[in-house]
Every structure is written in C-alpha cells, then in structure tokens.
Amino acid sequence: MIETKSLINETSPVHRRSGTMFDDTDDLELQQRLERFEREIVELKFENSLFEAALERKKFESIISHVPSTIPPISSSQTTTPTGSYQDLANTSATNRGDRLARKRSKSRSTQSDLRIHLTLEQKLAIIISEYEQTKIDKMRREIINEKKTDQLESDIEWVDIERSDFELSITEFLKIKDASINKRTRKLVGEKIDRYFHEHLQTRESLTNKLRDRSSGLKRQIVRLEAQLREKEEMGETLTEVDFNQLQMENKQYLDKIDEKNIELVLHKHKVAKVTQLLNYYKANLNTNTIDLIDIQQRINKQDILYEFTRQEINKANYEQSRANKRNYNLRDQIEHYQVPEILDYVKRKSLLCNLQRDCQVWQRKVELVSMSLQQSKQQWQALNRTLRYYDDADL
Predict the structure, then answer these.
(1) 117 has which bridge partners?
(2) Beta bridge partners of 75
(3) 179: closest CA among 194, 198, 200, 196?
(4) How far apart are CA 58 and CA 203, in angstroms?
C-alpha cells in the first residue's frame, strides 16, 4: 500500500505537467502508459493484500504465543528511515499519510522527502514462502476435514439406505402377514398371526443387535491392539524418521531417473521399430511387385515352351518331309541317271502297236455293248415266256 501511494505521488507531477506532455507526446503513448500504471497498481494492490494478510497472521501469532516475532530488517531509501519489524511498518504507514498529503499540495519536488519503505527481495520471498506454506497447511486441513465429512456422510447415506430397505421389507412382510391373517369367512383380522410376526421380528432385531455389539467390541479390541503395536514400534524406533523419508525420496528419485532413461530407450526403440516397419513395408511392396513380375515371366516362359515344343514338332515334321523328298529325289535322280531313251523306230513301232491296241479295244468294247444289248433282249423275252407259261399253268389248274 505504501509503494502504491508513493507511485501515485511520483505520477502527480506528470498530471501537473499534462499541458506540456500533451504537446510533446501522442495520445496513444499516454494511453499505453496509463494502462501500464494501472497494471502496476493492480499488482501492487495484490502484493499489499498478501503482505497485510501475513502481517495480520504474525500479529495473531504474537498475541497467542506472547513472544515477539523475529522479522528481518527493512531497508529504506534514506538513512533516517527506521529499520524494524512489520509492526514498525504499520506504525510508520499512518505517519507517512500526512507527509504524502503535504507533498501532494506542494508544487516543488525539491522540498519533498522520500519516506518510501521498501521490502528487500529476501523479505518478500520469505513472506511469500510462509504464506504458501500456510496455504498448503490450510488446504491439507480442509481436505482432511472434507474427507472426514465425506466419509461420515457416506456412512450416513449407507445407513439410511439400509434402514430404508429394511423398513420397506418390513412393510412388505407386514402387509403379507396382514393379508394372510384375514379370515375369509368373517373378513376380520386374526391377532395371533400379527402377534407372532411382531414377536419374531423383535427376536430378529435383538439377535442382529447382539451380532453388531459383538462385532463392535471385536473392532474396538482390534483398534486397541493396533494402537499398542504402534506405540511399541514408536518406542523401539521402528517408525519411519525424516532420514528414512529422505532416503526413500532419494531412491524414488533414482527410480524416476531410471524410468526416464527406460522411457528414452523405449522411444528410441519405437523409432527403430518404426524405421524397420517402414523398411519391411517397402520390401513387402517390392516383394509383391517382384512376385507379380515373376508370375508374368513364368507365364511367358510357359508360352515360349509351348511355342518351342510346337516349333520342334514342326521341325521334326519338316525333317521327315525333307528326308522323304530327299529319298524321292534320290530315286528320281537315280532313274534319270539310269534312264535309257529307246530308238526312234522302236518308238514308232510301239506307238503304232499302242494305237492298234487302243482301236481293237474300242472295237471289242463295242462288241461287248452289242452282246449286252442282245443279252438284255434275250432276258426280256425269257421273262415274257416265263410269265406266259405261268399264266397257262394257272389257267389249267
């Protein structure tokens, strides 16, 4: 709060010289400076509220403990500023208000005395750390209280649910007993069944109460035994001390470092696996392409084999035809080589003989035709004669 008011006092000459500043600076620059001052004021207000809360808590602690609180010394901008505790800071804040009002009325900055009281960085950090620790303690206390309240409410809710279910079950059983105890003839209730129901219900409740009492006493004995064991361990020094806790923290830190190293190794292995998987996919794609090419080449080879077999058969056939042609050619050549041309007179004689034979053959063919015709006529006459004879034979009969 003191720093905020001193900052306002410092900015008061700026307001007094506003006429000259508007002539020298731009409106945008003034707006930016004003926003910056407002942000600083808000931050200082928050800081002052934090320091005031710490001061009030220190006062309350000093009143309760009746022991003066040890506060680190306060540094000031002048040597005349007293150094002391937060109580001195609170006492000087009231006296400085009048001085600041007097300085505000004065128009000359030469007569002003700078009585601003500043906290060192160590003091601010100490206050912030103490407030942070106190906030953590309050938070833990509230969490413990809330946890206890939550457990209590959960137990109450569970107890209410159990009681409600028991009550509903009791109502249902009572209605059944009531319906069963009505006399069908007179339509009146029979009190013996209802009395027996209430008697059995009371016995059941008493047995349940005894069981719960025994269980509660057993739990109390167990609590007493555990408390005795805990006290015995505390006396023997088997409980965890701060050294053990620090050692466990160190071991935990070492394990966390190992876990980080393993995580880094895991990330590296994952990268390697990703690269290997990428290469595997690449090789798989190449394998599929090569397999398709191999199948195509195999089909082509099969076609070429079929064509080769057909060509080989054609070649064998051509060789066979060639061998036959060669043999025939050889025979023809042999005949040509051994061919002897007859003499001309022999040829003429043979030719004339051939012509005579052909003419005789034609004559004989004509004769055969004539004989065939006569034979046909004779057959017809014979058939006619046979028909005539058969007719006469039939007529005689």
Answers:
(1) 76
(2) 118
(3) 194
(4) 62
DSSP code for 182: B
Contact between residue 96 and residue 82 where contact means Cβ atoms under 8 Å apart: no
Decide: 193 and 179 in contact? Cβ < 8 Å.
no
Asked whether the beta carbons of 170 and 205 are under 8 A apart, the reply is: no
List 2's β-bridge partners, or say none: none
d(CA 333, CA 335): 5
Q: What's the pLDDT score for residue 397? A: 65
Question: Chain-centre distance of CA 269, in angstroms?
Answer: 19
**Look-up of token digits 């015995």:** 232
Task: Provide the H-helix boundaries in 181-241.
Answer: 191-236
pTM of the model: 0.32
Whole-angstrom Cα distance, residue 152 to residue 142?
Answer: 15
Q: Evaluate whether 34 touches 18 at the Cβ level (below 8 Å).
A: no
CA 255 centroid distance within chain: 28
In contact, 112 and 78? CB cutoff 8 Å: no
Q: Angle, to 10 degrees, between the axis of helix 27-65 and the axis of helix 2-16?
A: 160
**Range of weakest confidence among 146-155, 196-205, 219-228:** 196-205
pLDDT in tens, 266-306: 999 998 998 999 999 999 999 999 999 999 999 999 999 99
Residue-by-residue DSSP string for 301-324: HHHHHHHHHHHHHHHHHHHHHHHH
Domain ranges of the chain: 2-119
Exposed, middle or buried: residue 51 (CB in 10 Å: 0-12, 13-18, 19+)?
Answer: buried
Question: What is the band of 335 on the pLDDT scale with cuts at 50, 70, 90?
Answer: confident
Two tokens at 105?
């009325």
* Cα–Cα distance for residue pair 15/308, rounded to 1 Å: 111
CA pair distance 205, 167, nearest whole angstrom: 12
Pairwise CA distance, residues 197 & 60, whole Å: 65
Residue 222 and residue 218: Cα distance in Å, rounded?
6
* CA 394 to centroid of chain Cα atoms: 123
Q: In this structure, what DSSP letter does residue 106 have?
A: -
Report helix, strand and coil shares of the chain as percent, to nearest 5: 85, 0, 15
pLDDT for residue 287: 93
